Structure formats: C-alpha cells, structure tokens
Amino acid sequence: MGFVVDRAHDGPLDPSLVDQAVRRMVCKWKMLSGRLEWSEERRVWALQIPDVLPASYATHTFTTSTSDYSYETPALTSTTAAILPRPPQALFRHPSTPKQAADYAKSNAPLLAVHITALSNHPEIIFLGICVPHTLVDATGMGMIVHALECELRGEEWTAPELQSEDSPNRLEVAVLDELECVKDVDKDGAEHSIVRDYRLATVWSKVVLIANVFWEYTFHQTERKNIFLGSDVVKTIVEPVKREVKEATGGKLFVSTGDVLWGCVPYIPVSSLQSTSIASLALLHRHHLDEARVPSTLSALLKLGDSGDIIPRRKMGMDFWHFSNQTNARITDFRGLGPLLSYWSYTVPLAIDHTVLFTELNGGYLLLGSMRRRRWGRIGGVLERLELARADDGAGEEER
C-alpha cells in the first residue's frame, strides 16, 4: 500500500526516524519479525519466529529513492468528484522486494518492507510504501500495522497483538462464529453452494485459467487501475436520496448503508444490463447478500474450503467476476504519522486482478480504488463530471439565495 504525504507544514523528513520507528514496532510485534517457511507435511506456509532477536537480525527492509515524477492530483475537497491518475508502483515499492510467498521463503527476506520516495520537483511531498505479503495479513491487519507505526512515530503507547500458537484455536474465528450463532441461520445448503460456486482450490490448472482471464482483460479490454475520490458533499448527493427512497419504499423496515449505495452506484454504472435497475434496488440487493452471508453456515463453508488449500475466484471467460471490498473499518487511511494524506493507493503483485473495487474513507470523503476496462472508466468519468457540475450549480444557487 502507498501513502502520498504532505510535508509542507512539517518540513523535510529524516528517513532514519521512520527506519527506527519501524524497527521498534517489529521488535514489539514479534509476528512481524518472522520468516515464511513452507510446511511440506501440512501443505501450508508456516511462520518461524525467533525467540530472541539478535542485534544483527534484519527486522525489516528499509529503502529510499528520489524521483522527478510530476505529481498532479486535484485537491480532495468536499465537492471533488474525480478520477485520480495512478502513480508508478516504483514510487512505493523497491524492485528488490519479493513478490510472493515463495520468494520470501527462498531469500529469507523480512516480511515487512518500507520504502520512501522523495520528489526532486516537489520537496513538500513524499511517497511512503509499506509492503507485507498477503499470506500474512489482510486489510484489517494492514490497518493494525499502520496504527502501530503511527504510534511509534509519535511516541505513543500501543499494544501488540498476542502471538497464537499452532495448536490453539483461532480466537477471531471462534468469536465470529459465537456472534453468528446468535443470528438466525438461513438456507444453509444454499449458502455453502454459493461459496463453492464462486471459489475453487488453487490448483495449477485453475491458476492458469485465472491468469489467462486476467491477461485477456488487460490486453484486449485495456483494463486500467485508477482511484475515484468522492468528496463528502458529493457522497451526500448520491447517498441521501437513495436512503430516503429505500425508507419510503419499505416503510422504514429496511435500510441501506453508504457502502451499499456506493456498491450499487459507482462500479456498475457502465454495465448496460443494469442501467435500467435503480440504485436503490442494487443497494438493497447488496444489503440482502451481506445479511445472508453473516450466518455460521457461510463462514463455515468458506473456512472448510480454505482449510483444503489456497482458494481463488472461479472465473470464466466472458463473465465479469466483480470483487468489491469495503475496507473502511480497517482505518488504513487514518494514518497521519508523517503529515496530512494527499492520497492513498493499493498495489498487488505479481498479479493485479481486474474488476476489483476497494473503498475506504479519506479526508471526509470516500476513495474507491478500482480496476476496470478503459471504456468503463470513460463512462464513469462522464458521470463524475456531471456530479461536479450539479454540485457547482447547487452552490451557485445557495449563494444567490
């Protein structure tokens, strides 16, 4: 993941302070000091964590660079509705950083890599990249790392998560299942079937099919990865009418969240088969599927499939398989350890799956990180321009009154 940080008020950054903060963080959070190792017996990646860290032990990788990249991103205000150009990955990630679990194990590389890029033509801006293998953490885990690093940079107290032994039960899994047991389970067979329908074990053949599908999308459909920023006023313009419509249509019995509305609005605007469907209906559909997924049978089916090995999406040529991830609760973009954030980016190597949309909050608005076909980006750009014009007209009307 990558942060674009504004240092205009804080002055030039001493990179060594970040390096020292990362080392302190890893020394406290023992899991991050481990090394990946393949367990042939269990057919899983295992984490080997030293009991004591020698002074010469590499707790992390820290690199810096300078670039003449011209940073041009619009100010992210409450009325902004814009597609943001994607900076080169090299600004956030050193080329020597491993790309997959096998590379980490083969080179005995530290799990955490931090890279800082200074811009020669924009000395007030820095790029901060934090790389961790997805085998180790998800978005929630990355949010915890970011929070810990911010505390170290500010000299604040924080508590590292406890290590879990190999034989102890997964506390998170147990807690989630206990909570879900309090919810009425629905359609157990159907829930399990939907998991099996949408995902498959990562065999050699299934990986080949997935890679071929992704290659087709990027090559023939010119898939591009960009960000969409929607300011707080723009989000209200989109969300509030839909929430009112749902409330009136259901007599207040059902509700949709901001995430439900954005799911129904932004990624699917260009899909012709859905253009005749109201955003309220799509938002309710998303809420319905979320409620159906929050039952023990769905989680159990997913865990059962995952226990058999790595799983990947079950994709077919000619079929759009959208992956939508609401990462707001991970609080990754709350990071202010080095100064105000100008932008946030997420990169996946070695394979960036197409038709992926992640969203999170940023500076009071919402940031959507997407991977879509070029023509869909073009249509979404037109919609965003109309949103900004509508907001400008509303603002002019309010000034006249």
Can you put this structure into words, describing what you see?
The protein has eleven helices and 14 strands. By secondary structure, the protein is α+β, with helices and mostly antiparallel strands. The strands form four sheets. It has a five-stranded mixed sheet, with helices on one face. A five-stranded mixed sheet has the order 5-9-14-13-11. A two-stranded antiparallel sheet has the order 2-3. Helix 7 (232-250) packs across helix 9 (279-293).
What proportion strand? 15-25%
Radius of gyration: 22 Å
Spans of 5+ residues with little confidence (pLDDT < 50)? 183-193
Bin the helical content. 25-40%
How far apart are the termini?
Answer: 45 Å
Class of secondary structure makeup: alpha+beta
Tally of DSSP helical segments: 11
The strands making up the biggest β-sheet line up spatially as 4-6-7-1-12
Outline type: globular
Main beta sheet: 5 strands, mixed
Instruction: Give the helices and strands as they follow along the chain.
Output: EHEEEEHEEHHHEHEHHHHEEEEEH
Q: What is the arithmetic mean of pLDDT?
A: 83
How many β strands by DSSP? 14
Summarize the structure.
Helices cover 39% and strands 20% of the residues. About 3% of the residues have low confidence.
List keywords for this structure.
single chain; 401 residues; alpha+beta; five-stranded mixed beta sheet; 39% helix
Helix and strand arrangement:
Layout: E1 2-6, H1 15-28, E2 35-39, E3 44-48, E4 61-67, E5 81-84, H2 101-107, E6 113-119, E7 125-131, H3 139-154, H4 171-180, H5 188-198, E8 199-201, H6 204-220, E9 223-230, H7 232-250, H8 258-265, H9 279-293, H10 296-307, E10 311-313, E11 323-326, E12 341-345, E13 356-362, E14 365-373, H11 374-400
Parallel strand pairs: 4-6, 11-13
Antiparallel strand pairs: 1-7, 1-12, 2-3, 5-9, 6-7, 8-10, 9-14, 13-14
Helix pairs in contact: 1-3, 5-10, 7-8, 7-9, 8-9
